[in-house]
């Protein structure tokens, strides 16, 4: 009974017995034979939009060369005028960076102020020594090498040797490296800021401290107590 009713209904309504098919889109309904005109229309619209964005002539061809005016304007290669504030800012930055870019490597004066002696060493930028002297080179012996007076005379003698040997012609920048906090350090500062260092302190570009600090480690010897 059911099969007879289904066959009768299929004959009466032929669309019921057919499988469902996807519905064609609106564009395919309007352009059922070919999609080429539709793609061409979309391409023309995109080209027109690109011309408007780039600010070029609408009759100019669209391609790789069309983006050159926009790129030139972005990179600053075009003929567009630049504001005075921007130009002044660039000049200020170049003026600040240029001295550091052309800076000559510095010579070093190492001042080792030990509790028993003072050693002053002048080195080239690569670290090779040019001059090295201690209080013992001036005739001080044993405990006399640790005093303020011996370090004062040593610093004055080293500055005189630098000028007599013509090393000032070679030195353009000078860096002072301290090590230790004993009397020799104060004596060297006194000479550098005094009349003996008038030709040398103008070359100083940097002052640093390389004093070694102890963190933990082995136990230090007991302090020596006299009396």
Automatic annotation (TrEMBL):
Q: What domain of life is recorded for the organism?
A: Eukaryota
Q: Which InterPro entries match?
A: Ribosomal_uS11 (IPR001971), Ribosomal_uS11_sf (IPR036967)
Gene3D superfamilies for the chain: Ribosomal protein S11 (3.30.420.80)
**Which SUPFAM superfamilies does the annotation name?**
Translational machinery components
**Record's keyword terms, sorted:** Ribonucleoprotein, Ribosomal protein
Protein family per UniProt: Belongs to the universal ribosomal protein uS11 family.
Give the protein name, as stated in the record: Translational machinery component
Q: Which species is this record about?
A: Aspergillus granulosus
């Amino acid at each position: 009974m059911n099969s007879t009713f289904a066959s009768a209904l299929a004959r009466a309504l032929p669309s019921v017995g057919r499988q469902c098919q996807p519905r064609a889109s609106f564009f395919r309904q309007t352009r059922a034979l070919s999609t080429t005109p539709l793609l061409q229309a979309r391409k023309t619209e995109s080209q027109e939009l690109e011309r408007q964005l780039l600010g070029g002539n609408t009759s100019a061809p669209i391609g790789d060369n069309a983006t050159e005016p926009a790129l030139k304007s972005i990179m600053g290669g075009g003929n567009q005028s630049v504001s005075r504030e921007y130009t002044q800012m660039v000049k200020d930055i170049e003026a600040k960076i240029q001295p550091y870019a052309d800076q000559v490597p510095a010579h070093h004066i190492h001042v080792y102020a030990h509790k028993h002696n003072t050693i002053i060493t002048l080195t080239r930028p690569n670290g090779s020594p040019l001059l090295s002297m201690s209080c013992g080179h001036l005739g001080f012996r044993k405990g006399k090498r640790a005093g303020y007076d011996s370090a004062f005379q040593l610093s004055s003698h080293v500055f005189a040797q630098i000028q007599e040997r013509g090393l000032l012609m070679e030195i353009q920048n000078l860096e002072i490296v301290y090590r230790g906090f004993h009397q020799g350090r104060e004596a060297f500062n006194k000479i550098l800021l005094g009349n003996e260092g008038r030709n040398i302190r103008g070359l100083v570009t940097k002052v640093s401290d390389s004093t070694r600090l102890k963190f933990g480690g082995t136990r230090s010897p007991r302090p020596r107590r006299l009396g």
